[in-house]
Amino acid sequence: MAQVTTAYRPTRGRRVREVVFRTLSTAALAFVVGPSLWLIVDVVVRAVPHWHWSVLTTVPLGTGGGLENALLGTLVIMGGVLVLAGTVGVLAGVHFAELSRPRRNGKGGGNVLRTATEVLSGFPSIVLGYVGYVALCVGLHWGFSLLPALIILSLMVTPYIAKSTESALRQVPTAYREGAEALGMSTGYALRKVVIRSALPGIVTGLLIALAIAVGETAPLIYTAGITNNLPSASLIHQPIAYLTYYVWTDYNQPIKSSQYLSFDAALILIVLVLALLVVSRMLVNRTQRHAEGRR
Fold first, then answer.
1. CA 220/CA 189 separation, integer angstroms
2. Are 146 and 232 in contact (CB under 8 A)?
3. How far is CA 284 from CA 134, 209, 254, in A?
4. Is the four-CA dihedral 15, 17, 23, 25 of positive or negative sign?
5. What per-residue string of b and e applies to 184-221 under the rule 16 or more CB within 10 Å gives b?
6. Are the beta carbons of 96 and 90 closer than 8 angstroms?
7. What residues does 102 pair with on adjacent strands?
8. What share of the chain is helix, strand, coil (3-state, %, to 5)?
9. What's the pLDDT score for residue 131?
10. Could you give the CA distance from residue 47 to residue 55 in angstroms, rounded to a whole number?
11. C-alpha angle with apex 239: 235 to 241, nearest 5 degrees?
12. Rounded to 5 degrees, what are φ and ψ at 65?
């Protein structure tokens, strides 16, 4: 006897629930995106009418000048955090996802390290900054300088990189690992050429979030990096370094208009830096995915 199949038709109650769920999801998205767009538009409206390109090529002078020292200092800090925290965070994520083996009692061998990472991610940034000031700037006599700032910022963002790397690696299908093993690949080679390459978009996203967090921090840098009107030097210690968030935080409430304009300019440059990170990361991810698809 032939089976008669009928098309599925959702009931009225199910349709109502779907509409309500979509409405709530859209409202939640607007609740998150709305304030962000409002802040970006407000910064652009305040900064663009008084923008001068000399801001990028001059250092602060009294109540005016530019932000060349802060821009170069921020780029140096971003590069240092990318190298230091990126290396430690990605390796930690690889360890949690691929190398940590379960113990006989059923608990994961990396539970202690994972718990420590989660606890570290919960510390307030100002507390880490003060610890860095006491331990590095004063205790080791490094003074306000680049190296203490890089260490503290890396401690802040490493848990995010490790967690995002672990999540990205765990989303790679098990069939990829089994196929690499069946082809006779060693564990390290398969991890580098198959697993990590497939998880690269998630890893890059974690690095992007880490850099965005590092760029937007002020309190840890006040305690460790200090501030200076000079351009960044090759010295890692005993030499303060400038950064953009200091001028956003300090000059916004100044009674002098030129100082306020400098604060708006610094905020606009930060927004452009974050957008540039987004564009570059997406280009790298798209290129990697096209390269991987061409090899299949």
1. 39
2. yes
3. 39, 15, 41
4. negative
5. ebeeeebbeebbbbbbbbbbbbbbbbbbbbbbebbbbb
6. no
7. 108
8. 75, 0, 25
9. 93
10. 12
11. 100
12. 85, -155
Joined together, the tokens standing for residue 54 give: 């000399």
Q: What is the pTM of this model?
A: 0.82
Task: Tell me what pLDDT residue 102 has.
Answer: 55
Q: What are the counts of helices (DSSP H) followed by strands (DSSP E) for the chain?
A: 12, 2
Tracing tokens 């691929």 back to the chain, one arrives at: 98
Q: Which CATH number fits domain 76-100+115-242+265-295: 3.30.70.100, 1.10.3720.10, 3.40.80.10, 1.10.10.60?
A: 1.10.3720.10
pLDDT tens across the length of the chain (296 residues): 455 555 556 677 788 888 889 999 999 989 988 888 898 899 899 999 888 898 998 988 877 788 999 999 999 999 999 999 999 999 999 888 887 755 444 455 557 777 888 888 888 889 999 999 999 999 999 999 999 999 999 999 999 999 989 888 888 888 888 888 888 888 788 888 888 888 888 888 888 888 888 888 888 999 999 999 889 988 899 999 999 999 998 888 888 888 888 999 999 999 998 888 878 777 776 766 654 554 45
Give pLDDT, residue 280. 77
Query: Of 254, 282, 283, 279, which Cα lies nearest the Cα of 266?
Result: 254
Contact of 250 with 189, CB cutoff 8 Å: no
- Domain boundaries defined on the chain: 76-100+115-242+265-295
* Residue 189: half-sphere exposure toward Cβ, Cα within 13 Å: 7
Token code pair at residue 205:
């996203």
CA neighbours closer than 13 Å in the CB half-sphere of residue 16: 3
Question: How far, in Å, CA of 128 to CA of 125, rounded?
Answer: 5
